[in-house]
Task: structure prediction
Amino acid sequence: MLGRWIFGVIVALNATCLGWPGAQATIATLKSLYPAEIRPVRMLGSERELKWSLGEAGITMQTPAERPCEHAFVFKIVRGDPYPG
Result:
């Protein structure tokens, strides 16, 4: 998993699956995020936002109906401030 860092804050996470994850993928290591800090979740190569849920198992993301490529599949999880204002 890779992150882009600006002043010590992760603003986007990219999680790569080396094979098609099926109908959904869960990342257990992200269960400590707050739902309010998760902004759009997308799969690179697909234009639409993905449905997601956050629970005790981690963040679970629904995959697009069509595979955007043939090999590695990258989820982009954009983070925002969990305490805006």
